[in-house]
Amino acid sequence: MYKNEKGCDILMVTSMVFEKPPIYSVVDYDGLWKKLINELFEEFVLFFAPDLYEKVDFQKKYEFLQQELYKEVIQEKKGKQIADQIVKVYLKSGIEKWLLIHIEVQGDPDPEFPNCSLSWYVCKYV
Question: Which residues have C-beta within 8 Å of that of residue 111, sequence separation ≥ 6?
């Protein structure tokens, strides 16, 4: 403590606070999409496939299936072999159908993206 020119006591305090840098982990966007689709399935179908929404009987319970089932179906295909979600639904006609839902979120330009999209589209029908 010291006195200024008018005789007032002055207390000068200096301190430094060191914080640990934040630890950011990689965001699991695929996991977030799977959770979103799972929790808001009817709304998801209504938004992304309104024509399909009209055909699905949502009064009957739909079921999210395991990835292993899908791997068996396309075991001879090339490229990514995992759908984001596989959902067994029933149409209003009573027919059972499996919906293979695959989401690709692109944050940066990728020159291979059109090829990947085409490959998934072809895989769906072959």
Answer: none
